[in-house]
Amino acid sequence: MEIWVFAEDEAHLTELIAGARRLADGTGGTVTCLVATPEVRADPQTLISLGADKVLLLPARGEGVPLEAYANLLHRELQGADLFLFGSSRRVREIAARLAADLGVDCVTEAKSLVLAADGTGWETERMIYGGLATARARQSGHPVLVGTARGTFAPAIATDRKGSVVQLEGPVASQVTIQNHHPRPQSSANLKEAPLVVSFGRGVQQESQIAIIRELAEALGAELACSRPIADDYKWLPEERYVGVTGQVIKPDLYVLVGCSGQVQHMAGVRDAGTIVAINSDPNAPVFEAADYGLVGDLKVLVPALAQALRTHLAS
Amino acid sequence: MRVLACYKWVYDERDLRIDAADLSLRCERAARKISDYDLNAIEAALQVKEAFGAEAWLLTVGGPAVEGSVKDALSRGADGALVVSDPALEGAGPLVTSQAIASVIHQVQAFDLVLFGEGASDDFAQQVGPRVAQLLDLPVITYAAELTVADGHVRARRRLENGDEEVQAPLPAVVCVTAAANRPRIPGMKQIIAAGKKPVTRLPLDSLGLDLPALNGGRSTAVVRGNVQTRRRRRVEGEPAEAAAELLRLLMADGLIRQG
After folding, report:
1. Going by fewer Cβ within 10 Å, which terminus of chain B is more open, N or C?
2. Distance from CA of A43 to the nearest CA of B (A)
């Protein structure tokens, strides 16, 4: 059993090494870890101590050549693998889809679980479909099997005194797609991902000026501000990294207060694992109330300031 | 110049129900729709058409139900549609779908730009666009939030986790657009009537040269189970000030807000 792992960032790569190690140990298999620089700067010996038997260092890329260019090179390397376990970043998902096309096999993206089938001849995966409305469980037995898992699927790696080998791969890495310019994202999205309390809003907020009352509630609560996709994508009232949903941020705060949002599955998929959800909406039949712990029906222009006021009074006392 | 937008005909998730007894997903009463983000691909094709006098075509592959999509899709403004509908393609995954699409494009040959949405609103596997590009040996730009065509190249601004990236690729190319790329137009009555008169080319599945038994061999049928909402769904009633105070009490009792 040969398991190969690849991810764009070190945190997810080491998680995948840990997951692969446990899957391999059950079958007497090996774990091969692919490392792209400069994205991953970890010492190969560290990756070995965390569970890899072999570290393959991918060849350096020229100026403007994206990570995705490795898709054409990995196809050749992967012939001997039984399972290619990959990360959940956008670049890596593109690479995996292109590899799957070249290999003529299936590929599972964003799986939330991955186990070896009971008879040892295939892999069972689970992933969300219809924006989290349902879970699809499937068994893959192609060769190799390609599975990408969401972050946090596997427990973190634990260092041991394992020994392994390091191999530098050679070869040109070419791409017809070239990077002209890069605009790093400000760090604010990191705050949203980690925030225990989040106040969010949708199109029930009809004018940009009304965001002030939502902000006021967020400040009274000490919460981060988020929104639904149209607020960021269509109206551009908040930066793109502030929208929650299947194509945006997937977060799990302890408390998620959602104001003026109907609660479409695409949005709620982004907070499926939130601790408690409070919905405020003027439509008593809005689907958001079915997906909330506490629901308040009424005009947000009245309810939200009332809640902010109650909080301020309470916290001052 | 010719541009092609591909779309998937999916169940409208708002119509899906979960059977309380066995947690199966009930689709019988669900309407179908063009997958949300594929509308952005169609709109992007129309914008290229308008900017360059290009010809814009649509392509869908799937089970017999896809026939019901053609008029809706064409009413949005494209010049014609290519359709592959066959019971064997019902519920087809990315492997089979991408091979079918690549085969159609290979037969028709003359597209400078092939557009996809960033993922289908049912399974959101996000694979078909990059797979088709790879099968046709074309460059692919995924997660394009803006795109322009000039001098035989496509330039795009990609949305990635750690920032935006400006890239370019020579045509012909495949581009997968995000929902931020545009706001799809809503067709009027005139466009809906005109759609019925546009050319539709139907390609039989057996003309595509797919080895379906081999393609379907690596994966068992997925077992789909509805995810039950376990939220408390408690209404907090009363005048605004009362309701706010009551919510505060509940959140304190849950330990989410510190005691004053």
Report:
1. C
2. 23
Instruction: Tell me the two tokens of residue B54.
Output: 């290009």
Chain B hits for A98, Cβ within 8 Å:
130-131, 133-134, 140
| Nearest-by-Cβ selection for A180 from B94, B161, B167 | B167
Condensed to tens digits (0 to 9), the pLDDT of residues A66-88 reads 999 999 999 888 888 999 999 99
Instruction: Work out the pLDDT band at A189, boundaries 50, 70, 90.
Output: low
Decide which of B143 and A234 is more confident. B143
Q: ipTM more than 0.85? A: yes
Q: What pLDDT shows up at residue A306?
A: 96
Q: Which pTM was predicted?
A: 0.90
Model confidence at A190: pLDDT above 80: no
Shortest CA gap A134–chain B (Å): 4
- From chain B, the residues in CB contact with A176 under 8 A are 139, 169-170, 173
Distance from the A184 Cα atom to the nearest Cα atom in chain B, whole angstroms: 4
Residues of B in contact with A232 (CB under 8 A): 180
CB contact under 8 Å between B250 and A130, yes or no, is no
B206 CA to chain A: closest CA distance, Å? Answer: 19
Chain B positions in Cβ-Cβ contact with residue A314 (cut-off 8 Å) = 248, 257, 260
Inter-chain residue contact A306 with B155, CB threshold 8 Å: no
